[in-house]
């Protein structure tokens, strides 16, 4: 399978130069909106499997799929295979709307979830294929950090909470942080108390019930 070079610039497949600026703004804004939703990288292909956009953040993520590759400027074959599969499915079933997901396990045991979606841009005759890359571990960590901020945890409590939510035992957490298991228990007791307090203030119905 041929491997296409990655370019951080937008390559527009259009003979009308006047459309290039508008197309670039459209795709870039679309990518920015998605990245704000915790997506770790964006790739946009034409229905002919030609890459027309790649976000800067996608480079770092994609390089984890080919750590031993002599070139850091190539699209991994796994991504090209996904792209080809989705495009072929659309060509075979043109009346169907395809929203598919693929999970890839990297060599460093990171799970990358690839979301595919077709995007219609006015500047192009045919829809574009958008591949959105999500680092599942990072996404879960972001959720846990949101929880920690919601509970107003201290920096040390955040560390304990993240390890606890990753299914580490109190002894394992103690070894990881260089503290005693009893200290871990004290932190967890404080965390649970803050959880209850946060739930009390965030759920008006429960608050009314408790007051009655």
Automatic annotation (TrEMBL):
SMART domains: HTH_LUXR (SM00421). Residues 167-194 form the HTH luxR-type domain. GO terms for molecular function: DNA binding. It holds the Pfam family GerE. One of its GO terms (biological process) is regulation of DNA-templated transcription. Coiled coil: none annotated. Gene3D superfamilies: Winged helix-like DNA-binding domain superfamily/Winged helix DNA-binding domain. InterPro entries: Sig_transdc_resp-reg_C-effctor, Tscrpt_reg_LuxR_C, WH-like_DNA-bd_sf. This is Helix-turn-helix transcriptional regulator. It comes from Leptolyngbya cf. ectocarpi LEGE 11479.
